[in-house]
């Protein structure tokens, strides 16, 4: 049984800290938020925070891990909800637009973190890259099942459209941005169903 700490068990304190950090990091950015504010809003001591997260970097990495797990679950649920490969891609796209149109949307947590930690060697930047590689691989695999055509370019196209929608979704009309993104995904799917054209030589005039 977990021993008690401020207002609850150790695991409850950790959850409260992580949930508080997640809310503030996502809404306001990472660098602008100090440890003292997180401790105050989570209602724990600094000692309790450092017991669970030895540094702010560890707390940020936990925040990104939680975001990664949430998106993995979201994608898995979308895929499970649709029987056909084409509809699975549509369902993943729809789950993205649901997020864009949700209250408090502030863009992609991973793109936001990458903007604040631009050094490719930094552990936080590395965590962003690992998440994005997983997402690219997942989307490419889904698209690969929609036709016999190679799917690498289509996967990159989907990610590019998604990144643009996530960036624009908190700056412009989220419904319009969502519709534009979904139309773009339909374009990707349509392109994968168009038969390859074989070059032919025009018949000689008689």
From TrEMBL:
Residues 34-53 bind DNA. The keyword GTP-binding does not apply. The lineage of its organism: Bacteria, Bacillati, Actinomycetota, Actinomycetes, Kitasatosporales. Keywords: DNA-binding, Transcription, Transcription regulation. This is TetR/AcrR family transcriptional regulator. The keyword Cytoplasm does not apply. Residues 11-71 form the HTH tetR-type domain. Transmembrane segments: none annotated. InterPro entries: Homeodomain-like_sf, HTH_TetR, Tet_transcr_reg_TetR-rel_C_sf. PROSITE patterns: HTH_TETR_2. Coiled coil: none annotated.
């Amino acid at each position: 049984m977990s021993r008690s700490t401020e207002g609850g068990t150790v695991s409850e304190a950790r959850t409260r800290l992580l949930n508080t950090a997640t809310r503030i990091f996502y809404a306001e950015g990472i660098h602008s938020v100090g440890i003292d504010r997180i401790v105050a809003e989570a209602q724990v001591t600094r000692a309790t925070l450092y017991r669970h997260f030895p540094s702010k970097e560890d707390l940020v990495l936990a925040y990104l891990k939680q975001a990664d797990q949430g998106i993995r679950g979201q994608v898995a649920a979308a895929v499970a909800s649709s029987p056909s490969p084409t509809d699975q891609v549509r369902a993943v796209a729809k789950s993205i637009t649901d997020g864009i149109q949700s209250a408090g949307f502030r863009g992609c947590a991973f793109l936001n973190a990458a903007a604040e930690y631009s050094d490719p060697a930094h552990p936080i930047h590395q965590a962003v890259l690992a998440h994005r590689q997983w997402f690219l691989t997942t989307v490419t695999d889904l698209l690969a099942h929609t036709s016999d055509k190679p799917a690498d370019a289509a996967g990159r196209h989907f990610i590019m459209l998604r990144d643009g929608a996530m960036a624009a979704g908190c700056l412009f009309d989220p419904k319009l941005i969502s519709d534009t993104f979904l139309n773009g995904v339909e374009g990707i799917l349509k392109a994968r169903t168009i038969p390859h054209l074989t070059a032919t030589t025009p018949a000689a005039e008689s």
